[in-house]
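Let us walk through a complete example step by step. Step one is to write down the protein sequence. Step two is to encode the small molecule, flavin mononucleotide, as a SMILES string so that its atoms and bonds are unambiguous. Step three, shown after the inputs, is the structure prediction itself.
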Amino acid sequence: MDLQKAFELVPQAAEQLPRGAFLTAGGDVWNPMTIGWAQFGVVWSKPVITVMVRKSRFTYSLMEKTDVFTLSVPRTKECVKELAFCGSRSGRDVDKEKMSGLSRAKAISGGADAVAECGSVFECRILQKQLLDLNTLDPELRAKFYGSNQALPDGDPHVLYVGEILSAYQL
Ligand SMILES: Cc1cc2nc3c(=O)[nH]c(=O)nc-3n(C[C@H](O)[C@H](O)[C@H](O)COP(=O)(O)O)c2cc1C
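Step three: the predicted structure of the complex.
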């Protein structure tokens, strides 16, 4: 995809991200997960988004079964309740397609289905993934984000998924 076109919607997305956006993985189970961290950039001459998913998330199991994901970004300050729901409840316990108040918008470029209530959508194809090596992380950040209080005894490190942006569009 053309770099300029891929990044047109990034300023609003980057501004909204700390309040949350929705990550959906490809496959039959549609389970929006709130994320607050992502990277937008250029790697291997392609426009990419890198998302970070901890191994304890139900979404991690879905990401491991697919080669696509989609980032759906709410309009500024919208979807507050839905972000809280999808950021605290697991798809292991609840059916988020039925319970989150969000609805599915069919993907148009082979990515995962998006969230219809959002303002912008980035469909992505996974190019590379890697488990975060905590031994190479700044010790202060390691202590803060990957201590013994996490869901898994190893600090529950994130897996980084680098996704090529297949399409970026407004709903
Ligand atoms: C604002 C916000 C941002 C979050 N960002 C991330 C993130 O980037 N990566 C992650 O693994 N979990 C993140 N979480 C936590 C997950 O959304 C949460 O654990 C969720 O219930 C997991 O859902 P799942 O088990 O259905 O995948 C975030 C939560 C909130 C509220």
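Step four is interpretation. The first strand starts at residue 21 and ends at 25.
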